[in-house]
Amino acid sequence: MPLKPSTSHAKEKEAIALGEGLFWRRHGSMDFACASCHAADGQRIRLQPLVNAYNKEDITKTMTNWPTYRVSHNLVRNNEHRMWDCNWQMRLPDIEYGSDGAIALIAFLTKQAENGKLNIPSMKR
Ligand code: HEC
User: Fold this and answer.
1) Of all protein residues, whose CA lies closest to atom 9 belonging to ligand 1?
2) Which of 14, 15, 29, 114 could cysteine-pair with 107, CB 3.0–4.6 Å?
3) Can you tell me the distance from the alpha carbon of 65 to that of 118, in angstroms, rounded to the nearest whole number?
4) Active-site residue, from 33, 50, 86, 103
């Protein structure tokens, strides 16, 4: 199945725009934005390559692989957990599952990966 995020409703468009705004917003004690780590090609932390949300191939490969079995957690995780984990990495307060913020970020990232074919079950680090 291809990812086909609907944008016919005004609230759906609003969520995508809010997600992109949050993605670029620097905040917290470390002054990080998602974009600090995920808006350029070739970035990495230690040995982990970082996805570029504006590189179509890169973000498509990422978003079509969730939910995933995370070997390091020994659990299946969904994309909301990834939002929580990256918020934690930015030293921000916990982002609630199902919150407007988490949904907006995922809506934006899914839009970036539009038409990518779902590739699950999958496995990540
Ligand atoms: C300080 C750097 C940093 C910031 C800031 C950051 N992340 Fe991440 N992100 C990472 C790391 C490290 C990984 C894990 C890479 C791995 O293990 O392969 C990751 C992984 C991800 C993934 C999954 C990639 C995959 O292969 O499936 C997504 C999606 C993501 N981040 C989104 C976000 C969003 C949205 C934000 C802002 C709320 C954010 N990140 C902020 C470092 C960061």
Assistant:
1) 86
2) 15
3) 7
4) 86
Report CA(84)–ligand 1 centroid distance (Å).
10
pLDDT in tens, 63-78: 999 999 999 999 999 9
Return all residues near 13 (Cβ < 8 A) that are at least 6 apart. 7
For residue 36, the ligand 1 atom closest to its alpha carbon is: 5
Active site residue 86: yes
Q: How far is the CA of 43 from the centre of ligand 1 (A)?
A: 11
Q: Would you say the CB of residue 90 lies under 6 angstroms from ligand 1?
A: yes
Among residues 87, 88, 86, 68, which one has the least CA distance to residue 78?
A: 68
79 and 106 Cβ atoms separated by less than 8 Å: yes
Q: What parts of the chain have a pLDDT lower than 50?
A: none
Amino acid at 61: K
pLDDT at 121: 93
Q: Output the six-digit token pair for 34.
A: 């998602």
Count of Cβ atoms closer than 10 Å to residue 4 Cβ: 10
